Amino acid sequence: MMSSVLSALNIQTFLIGIIVLFTVYKFRQRWKYKLPPGPFAWPLIGNYEVMKAKFLHEICAKYTKIYGSVFTIKLGPFQMVVLNDINSVTEALVKRKADFANRPFIKSVDVFTEGGMDIAFANYTPTWKLHRKIAIKALRQYLAGNRLEEVVRSSMNKCLSLMAKENGPFDPENYIDLMVFNILHAVCFGKSAELDDPDFVRFMKIDRDFTDIIGKGFVEDMFPIMYKICSTKKYRTVKEIFDEMIAMIERKFREHEDTFDCDNIRDFTDSLILTRKEAEQDEEMMSQLTDTHLRQTLVDIFRGGIDTSRVTLYFAIRYMAGLPDIQSKVQEEINRVVGKDRLPGVNDRESLCYTEATLHEAMRLGTVSAFGLPHCTVCDTHVGGYDVPKDTMVMMNHWALHHDPNYWKDVDKFDPTRYLDENGKLGIKPESWLPFSAGRRVCLGESIAKPELHLIFATIMQRFEITMPDETNPELKLGGSGLIPQPAPFEIIVKDRNMT
Ligand code: HEM
């Protein structure tokens, strides 16, 4: 009896101690720094309203009205500053670019990047700078030929022929998934795989499972002690899938090294091997860049490219199905510039201005990377008139930038002409359009994503007239959740335009 009273007292003392320490820490922070304001947050849990929100961008729109465009929220143990307008985002990413260039430490991410050996989540260090430089050079090298056009054409031929067999309403999601995966697989590992190739099918399955199961993340990241004592089944399953994915990439990488011929660069992996060989001669630092770094570059390309491209196209197709007038204008332009006898190519892009503007508008209204990737401050710094201490997580709200009524007239209207000048050519990029972010951590894949998405979109539009089944509400409803909005599932009907 006595001992249980004592232990209850001890727990009480312990809890009071924690609360006192927490309060002192908070006061010290408030006194030392002028921190961005924000709603009340519980210790460990954070802001309850943020936790239960279906979409983070919706709750951020509410807080912007209360606290202004720079505020602080807390999600579990992660306290983060959110930037919600183009001025504060530009101040952080461009004016003070080095201050905001780190990534926060998240244990599960550290495991899946084999100890921060990737580009997307690694910290801003000299090794990271070299790694990113090598990857950009390899990508440029790869894009210099017409390999991208070849692989897109080959993959689209296979996937669109399957899609053409649908003779009633269907959800295009799986076809888009197949196109994007097949293309990125070919970019990394050579020619476009047959859709029933067992290696390709297995690779696609583990990639899908990895994304689907991760969902909203791991409870272990909220309570890291769990990694040591009892990890969840979800975490163990994802780890197993990840190990298989890494083993597959490792095997493909080794096969490339064994058959490498610098006079015959077949794909991005070859470009990467070549770029490393070239850099070895004059870069002392190269010794720090291991095979794990190169393997993780391929994970970066897959993980960075697949979901972003897939959801962008899903949005674009959904908008076209609900907006027949805009679809007709895109098709009229493709008929005029490309015709029906050949497929659209990379060089047509600069003449297909309305088509490109339509894609830009789909990327604005359906911002797939709504909050980009989390940044972290390298040192004590400032933004929007507030202090931001070293090691603070900072999120850029790209969704808010793309829906800011101060920058976009009729903000919810789908209007490709926003991007065109009086001659119908692509004009200067609108100030608050920033889907690929900016600064030191700007999307590494922007140079490949833009032509890739354009080619896929233009090829679909050239081939099919897309409509929605009768009685479908043409207005787009959002599905997905949390940080990643996407269109709610929908059905389309396709009619082969070449058959009419
Ligand atoms: C619609 C297409 C895409 C969009 C909208 C998009 C958007 C973004 C955004 C917002 C970021 C975060 C930037 C930041 O931290 O400030 C990012 C990072 C990144 N993206 Fe993309 N992305 C797309 C396609 C791709 C593709 C196709 C690839 C690969 C080929 C790719 C690879 C990466 C990588 C590696 C990073 C991390 C860069 C770093 O930390 O230095 N992305 N992307």
Report strand %.
5-15%
User: Please, what is the average pLDDT?
Assistant: 91
Shape verdict: globular
Largest sheet composition: 4 strands, mixed
Sheet/helix structural class: alpha+beta
Distance between the termini: 87 Å
Give helix % range. Answer: 40-55%
How many E-type strands? 10
Which runs of at least 5 residues are low in confidence (pLDDT < 50)? none
Main location: membrane
EC number: 1.14.14.16
Subcellular location: Endomembrane system; Endoplasmic reticulum membrane; Microsome membrane
Enzyme class: oxidoreductase
Notable characteristics:
heme; transmembrane; four-stranded mixed sheet; 500 residues; globular; lipid-binding; EC 1.14.14.16; heme binding; alpha+beta; two-stranded antiparallel sheet
Structural write-up:
Its main location: membrane. This is Steroid 21-hydroxylase. Belongs to the cytochrome P450 family. Its EC number is 1.14.14.16. With 500 residues, this protein is an alpha+beta fold. The protein is built from 18 helices and ten strands. It has helices at residues 2-32, 48-52, 56-67, 86-95, 107-112, 126-144, 147-164, 173-189, 198-214, 219-222, 225-229, 233-258, 268-282, 291-322, 324-337, 353-365, 398-402, 446-463; strands at 70-75, 78-83, 375-376, 381-383, 386-388, 393-396, 464-467, 478-481, 484-487, 493-496. A hairpin with a 2-residue loop joins strand 8 and strand 9. The chain is globular. It starts with a helix and ends with a strand. The model has no long low-confidence stretch (mean pLDDT 91). It binds protoporphyrin IX containing FE. Residues 119-120, 132, 300-301, 304-305, 308-309, 312, 368-369, 372-373, 375, 396, 435-437, 441-445, 448-449 line the site of protoporphyrin IX containing FE (HEM).
